[in-house]
Design goal:
Blueprint (H helix, E strand, L loop, with lengths): L2 H25 L2 H7 L4 H4 L1 H24 L1 H20 L4 H30 L4 H29 L3 H21 L15 H24 L5 H20 L15 H32 L3 H29 L2 H18 L9 H27 L6 H29 L3 H22 L21
Protein name: MDR family MFS transporter
Keywords: Cell membrane, Membrane, Transmembrane, Transmembrane helix, Transport
Family: Belongs to the major facilitator superfamily. EmrB family.
Length: 461
Amino acid sequence: MDRRLVGTIVVVLLGGLLGILNSTMAAVATDTLAELFDTSLSTIGWTATGFLLAVTATIPFTTWAVDRYGGKRLWVAGLVLFLAGSLAAGLAWDVGSLIAFRVVQGLGAGLLDPLVLILLARAAGPRRAGRVMGLMGVVLSLGPVLGPIAGGAILGAMSWRAMFLISVAVGVVALVLALRVIPADEPVEERPSRLDVVGLALLGPGFAAVVLALSQTGEQGTFGAWQVVLPLALGVALLVGYAVHARTPSPLIDLRLFRNRGFSASVTIMGLGGMGLFAGLFALPLYYQQAHGHGVLAAGLLMAPLGLGGAIAMPLAGRLSDRLGARGLAAAGAVVAVASVFALTRIGPGTPEVWPALAALTFGLGSGCFSAPTMGSLYRTLPGPMVAQGSSVLYMLNQLGAALGVALVALVVQTSADAMSGLRGVFWLSVGSNLLVLALVPLLPGRTRAPEPPVREQEFA
């Protein structure tokens, strides 16, 4: 890779890591913030829920805006908005202001998160999609693991405000580097002249409502509570409305993308993989805390092998997939992931920590081996003008899979006879999701001697 491309990749990944670290750091501060603001855990939970809903609702707008205003301009705008929200959150005076400023952060992250995929895919091109998506996977793997560790360390040594103010310092560096390194967008022949306002009003809130319903499932402990049923019904109605609306010319996201088998398989695999991975990310710390009595920081450190496995596997698998295709690597990775999570179903209170740590390491390796090739194959099947839409669909379904995984974890743990049987149930859930990934792998592109030709844009017209 040339130096300019490497510089762009590094700067974009720094911005992507910023949002992931901030959201996962804040997650470990829930108890601390509830005590400091003298409020309930359900109320303080809206600092995370509000952030997530803002991210989800903003993603469809990014699909349109990236071609209308250019990737670099939108990236800088997202960083500025995220920095403003971080600074304000660090200066919040009560729980209401903190929730509001976290929403501002989420709006900025909703611009940045899909842009990471869009900018990397456009910079790399189809021939290098696998290796660049593999580098993106390092951020996706390490971010959720490093965040709780960093959050626990900061809370142990400094004020909770430092979690947000540190993001400001890192974000300023990312902003300066972005202005200097990321190249200006080349002219796009057909920039969208009008925003699909109806589509935006249906799609963004629809996905946000479904994610809210899933997050409420974990809190209420049942799918039957009105706090779950009401937003779920609203979300489904909005998404059905969008499906009808998408038949009109120039919808926000063209649903005919799903006619392509490779695209449909790729986004489904990433959604299922996200569900299984987040189930493990939430269940393993609970196991270390409840079965072995470790604190938050120690449990976070014991989670490191999971992120380390993904960080090792994804760059290697992504690079290999550019030459060998996605199918064989993804199949091998799914088999390793299934075997690893199956091993976690056998652990108990007396199991030495080394064994679940090793299983988590191989789980990360397996997940990385199917995630990077899958993302790379997705971008090899899309024509350039459809990259933004494909990235948004991928990110939204991955968010949905993660939210579903977390909701099912909470539901299984709360309805089980005891904590250990609940955690084993969660690991069985992850086994099932990874088996579905394995079943879908044959739909991915196999070995190719040359880069796979992109799908013609006319197929979506």
